[in-house]
Structure to design on (586 residues):
């Protein structure tokens, strides 16, 4: 008769710890050192730490020399604990990273903690050692249910906080001086000067300025910020949104989310105080970028046009917020609200306003809001419609999921297309000789810039690709064109490429995934980093040169800055601020 021996009766071999320790150290290097060396390769270090975690599990299950019950029991408990925790996570953690953030973070963290527990309890008796391993597995897994995420950075890094701590938006709503909003528009009479000039041309009419190109002519500023730093005029809390500003005289306009209401806000330039607010009872939220609208207001002929994250298009009186008309673009375009929300900023051309319902352009009559035409549906896109004149023909261009699609302004007829599958996020640009620069994005970020020649002859449009360059790979950070070169973000760094052939001239600096404007008369880039720092960088092809830095706001900053004369407006999803820049020679 054969008697089976239990693990407890089997002579215990020393644990083979060195592979687990080696893998744990490798995980630390991948998770903490590699991001500093390769800050733009988020998928590399995420996958590296995740695969390292799986390797630790394989080591423990097959090569650790632990008793079988401990080896496979621990692996089974890890699976059960992670699955159980996934059912009780806060939505911001469960849904972030397209639902993969928890997996990519929890597996490496759990496996590393397990290695530490095994090493620390290696000399204990069987029962205490097993109890220590069980406790570590449960705590390292279940602890994720105690946190929430305030969204992720462009590189994928989350902003963790305790699950029950108040969000910045909740703290804003709790302030006693922020009274609840009534339906429609709450107004305070606009200054008489602002009313008198309501129909004059706006200083900064909307997204990225008058031509949607982030170029500021006619302004030169002092670049020695140690002697003449930006002067803060005011700073105010603001509800979450990735909107920028439109500016007209003494007033500026932006969008934000406050609780269940999506707001259009008109404020005084001098103080940042609200003049009027319009609210719509709708809320958009997603785990990566958080709540709030994504588009920027557009000013035209005494009205402000806004497009919300859930698809509401408003035409409001710019002086007091009175509703002229409103449309639900999602319904009109038969489009579902995309995962990231509608992100287009309205484009006003002649007697119509055009918005992008994800990858589909929709035009409305300015006077009444009546639908004019629908463009083709070409998949996902975060880009806004862009007015271009090519070969003397005005047209509206959208970078969408298929590539670039140009439509006639009168009826939305497709004029020409250029295929470059991916996700259209940015605005196109024209070269000095009339070629078009387009971009797209893929799962790893920006895919580069493509230069195409578009011509019209014999009743047809032709498109020819001149070159595609990965020397500059904007993601959701728009680029600028200046003196035969393009400047913009290549991941977290700035880069310059030549428009002649797409060759990179330089790459430098660390700014996260921020935004920038070009002071064209001064060959100067004014950069707003993802962390809220301002920087001045020379817009010259010779070499990268940073001239100055200044901390402007705190927190993740994806919003485009606005420069009108010497007035700089910046914001993110928590605060907004105004600065006075010293004008050169004054």
């Amino acid at each position: 008769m054969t008697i089976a021996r239990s693990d407890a009766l089997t002579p215990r071999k020393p644990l083979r710890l060195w592979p687990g320790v080696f893998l744990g150290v490798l995980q630390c290097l991948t998770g903490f050192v590699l991001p500093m060396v390769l800050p733009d390769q988020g998928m590399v270090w995420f996958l590296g730490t995740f695969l390292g975690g799986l390797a630790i599990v394989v080591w423990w299950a097959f090569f650790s020399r632990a008793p079988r019950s401990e080896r496979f029991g621990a692996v089974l408990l890890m699976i059960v604990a992670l699955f159980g925790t996934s059912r009780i996570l806060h939505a911001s953690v469960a849904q972030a990273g397209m639902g993969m953030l928890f997996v990519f973070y929890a597996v490496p963290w759990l496996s590393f903690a397990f290695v530490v527990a095994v090493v620390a309890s290696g000399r204990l008796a069987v029962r205490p050692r097993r109890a220590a391993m069980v406790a570590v597995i449960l705590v390292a897994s279940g602890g994720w249910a105690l946190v929430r995420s305030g969204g992720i950075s462009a590189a994928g890094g989350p902003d963790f906080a305790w699950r029950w701590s108040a969000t910045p938006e909740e703290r804003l709503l709790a302030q006693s001086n922020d009274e609840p909003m009534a339906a429609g528009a709450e107004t305070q009479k606009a200054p008489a000067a602002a009313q008198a000039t309501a129909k004059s041309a706006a200083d900064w009419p909307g997204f990225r300025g008058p031509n949607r190109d982030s170029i500021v002519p006619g302004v030169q500023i002092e670049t020695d910020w140690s002697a003449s730093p930006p002067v803060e005029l005011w700073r105010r809390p603001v509800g979450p949104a990735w909107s920028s500003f439109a500016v007209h005289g003494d007033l500026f306009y932006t969008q934000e989310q406050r609780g269940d209401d999506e707001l259009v806000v008109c404020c005084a330039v001098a103080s940042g105080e609200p003049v009027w607010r319009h609210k719509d009872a709708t809320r958009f939220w997603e785990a990566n970028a958080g709540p709030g609208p994504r588009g920027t207001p557009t000013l035209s002929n005494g009205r402000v046009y806004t497009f919300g994250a859930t698809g509401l298009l408003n035409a409001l009186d710019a002086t007091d917020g009175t509703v002229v008309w409103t449309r639900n673009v999602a319904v009109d375009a038969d489009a579902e609200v995309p995962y990231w929300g509608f992100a287009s900023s309205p484009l006003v051309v002649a007697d119509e306003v055009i918005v992008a319902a994800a990858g589909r352009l929709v035009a409305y009559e300015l006077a009444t809001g009546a639908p004019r035409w629908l463009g083709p549906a070409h998949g996902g896109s975060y880009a806004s419609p862009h007015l271009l004149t090519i070969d003397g023909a005005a047209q509206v261009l959208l970078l969408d999921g298929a590539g670039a699609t140009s439509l006639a302004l009168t009826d939305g007829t497709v004029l020409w297309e250029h295929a470059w599958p991916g996700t259209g996020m940015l605005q196109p640009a024209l070269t000095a000789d009339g070629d078009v620069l387009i971009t797209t994005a893929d799962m790893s970020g920006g895919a580069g810039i493509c230069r195409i020649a578009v011509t019209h002859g014999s009743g047809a449009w032709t498109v020819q690709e001149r070159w595609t360059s990965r020397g500059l790979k904007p993601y959701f950070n728009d680029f600028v064109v200046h003196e035969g070169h393009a400047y913009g973000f290549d991941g977290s760094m700035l880069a310059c490429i030549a428009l002649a052939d797409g060759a990179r001239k330089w790459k430098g600096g660390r700014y996260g995934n921020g935004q920038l404007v070009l002071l064209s008369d001064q060959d100067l880039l004014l950069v707003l980093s993802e962390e809220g720092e301002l920087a001045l960088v020379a817009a010259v092809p010779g070499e990268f040169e940073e001239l100055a830095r200044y901390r402007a706001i705190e927190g993740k900053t994806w919003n485009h800055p606005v420069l009108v004369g010497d007035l700089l407006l910046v914001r993110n999803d928590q605060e907004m601020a105004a600065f006075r820049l010293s004008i050169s020679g004054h």
Observations:
- The radius of gyration is 27 Å.
- The mean pLDDT is 90.
- The chain has nine helices and 38 strands.
